[in-house]
Amino acid sequence: MDTPSRPAPVRRAARATALVALALALAGCGVRLETPPPSEPSLTAVEAARRAAVTDVLDVRATARAAAAGAKDRTAKILEEVVRAADVQEVQLGGVYDSGLVAADGSPAPLPTGTAAGDDPAAVVELLGQAASRARAGLETSEDPGFARLTGSMSIAHLVASRALAAAADVEAPETELPAVAPVPTALEGVPAADLTALVVAEDSAGYMLEVLASRLTDPQRSAALARAATHRSRADAWARAAGLAGTPEDPRRVAYDLPDGITAAEPDTALVGSAEAALTTDLVTLVAVVPAATRAAMIDLAADTWSAALTWGAARVPLPGMPELATAKG
Question: Are residues 42 and 166 both part of a single domain?
Fold first, then answer.
């Protein structure tokens, strides 16, 4: 999967020098500059969406830094993670948009650095929730599938961080448009059959792993594992039906799957479930760039649920869930 394209950097110094030289040349010829000052060039839809996403990241980072000054313990750690994640997200978005405009004296126009909306965790929670909703809302209209994948991943990161911070700081979690139960989409035109087959296997094998693990655990972990196993089995069936595989010789589901040794060990390694959920998150986020535009939000809803489960089972937090080629652990 190609990474989303980024706008080429503007050589501001060279542009500013050229403008000053032109002004001096015209002045020497006795020509007055009556034209209005240069205006910012028009942005394409993708460039405008990219700039809006960068603005959200900058504001979240500025607010998180302000809130971190008085934070302690778990709240402080999460705020630090939010700041580090914003650093990575800004870079992958291509950085702050630079129009190349200069001030009257020829100096570069200042670039935005973000505006703090408050100095407490509640302000950060609210901004993260808003950023998550905006990123999700723009998925269907994005003209660049790779960019949709990137902003979809950011939506997950913002959402999960907002919920974790709200719990740590004991403030109200943000309201979002995500459904309480993420349904499997049925509009899958153009998605390669091999991708759908792999997704069915990933969901079904995750369910099998959790069932085996549950047999070796005690409550409350046992009940949690069984509930999650049922979710994966149900989704595997829904994907198989949506792909037209259910009840056919091509249905890839099996009675049993090979499992990591840690699952059947005397002391089961439950972190292996986190790894499986993280891998499934990557599968879902990758397909955001492949499915029809109207299906992207549903894919991100499923990925957000899967990533939340991955964290519950011990996966490390990353700035861009489902995009391991861009995101490094920040836990």
Answer: yes
